[in-house]
Amino acid sequence: MPLIRVHVDIDRVTARRVLQLHRAGRIHGESREAAREEVWRQGRTPAGDPVFVGVTNGRRHVQLLYDVEVYPDSGP
């Protein structure tokens, strides 16, 4: 299955919390669902749960990075 990387806009405080949860082996359901919704917005069909990859290091705009498996015959 192909992977696509999605970027989820988020504030710095929440980004730190998501990173701490990930390091503790837990997930942040709200951001994971936002990543799934972004895949749907791009016209693709998710084939699995989004996997947290990391956080961008932007000064003003912080984003969470998720890899999501998608069905090959879905979308553009």
Please write out the topology.
Blueprint: E1 3-10, H1 12-23, H2 29-41, E2 51-55, E3 62-69
Antiparallel strand pairs: 1-3, 2-3
Organism: Plantactinospora sonchi
Protein name: DUF4258 domain-containing protein
What report would you give on this structure?
- It is a single chain.
- The protein is an alpha+beta fold.
- The chain has one domain (3-69).
- The protein contains two helices and three strands.
- It has helices at 12-23, 29-41, and strands at 3-10, 51-55, 62-69.
- A three-stranded antiparallel beta sheet has the order 1-3-2, covered by helices on one side.
- A hairpin with a 6-residue loop joins strand 2 and strand 3 (62-69).
Keywords:
76 residues, alpha+beta, three-stranded antiparallel β-sheet, 3 strands
Concise description?
This protein has 76 residues and is α+β, with helices and mostly antiparallel strands. Helices cover 33% and strands 28% of the residues.
| Number of contiguous helices | 2
Radius of gyration: 12 Å
Roughly how much helix do the residues carry, as a percent range? 25-40%
What's the number of domains? Answer: 1
The count of strands amounts to 3
Class from secondary-structure proportions: alpha+beta
Biggest pleated-sheet summary: 3 strands, antiparallel
Average residue pLDDT: 93
Q: Point out poorly predicted stretches.
A: none
The shape is globular
Protein name: DUF4258 domain-containing protein
